[in-house]
Amino acid sequence: MKKLISLADRLLGHIDNFIRWLSIIIMSFMLLLTFVNVTGRYVFKKSIFFSEELARFLFVWVVFLGAAIIIKDKGHVAVTLLTDKLRGGKGGIVLELIIGICGYIFLVIVFLGGIRLAGAMNIYASAALEIPMGYVYWAIPLGTGIMMIHHTKNIISLFKKGR
Fold it and tell me: 65 exposed, middle or buried (CB, 10 Å; 0-12, 13-18, 19+)?
């Protein structure tokens, strides 16, 4: 069992590393694309007709994939006044467990809704790129699926010894 958990942790680590690098590449490409488009529009009076749409779609993917990494590191913005006061005791663990379960329920709802939305949006094509809009919306279930894995690990870590 420990070998399987270790293998899963390594696989998830590789996925997280891939997402980090993919996010860096996508953000760099978005920056370059936007810079070239603005320069072309104001200097040469010609713009790339699909640049704004592509940048918007790539941004959606970066947001959902990046949110998965943030959940892993517990880096989302939170009001921690009550959890800080209860930290270390049983009340703190119970509160963190309740918060974790509520977060997990939210992620499941977004995941299932994202699958339905992505499937439904395949009948529509984007205006400039003319790609199925489902490609854009698949970022929702993919990102929230990875978020659920990390969130589950965070909840399980509440019960580890030495915490």
Answer: buried
User: 33-61 burial string, b = 16+ CB within 10 Å, else e?
Assistant: beeebeeeeeeeeeeeebbebbbebbeeb
How far is CA 81 from each of CA 26, 49, 84, 163, rounded to the nearest angstrom? 36, 48, 5, 19
Please, are residues 83 and 30 in contact by the beta-carbon 8 Å criterion?
no
**C-alpha separations of 56 from 44, 61, 64, 94, 123 in Å:** 23, 9, 13, 40, 19
User: For 73-131, what is each residue's pLDDT tens digit?
Assistant: 888 877 787 777 777 778 888 888 999 999 999 999 999 999 999 999 999 999 999 99
pTM: 0.87
Given a cut of 60, whether residue 162 has pLDDT beyond it is no
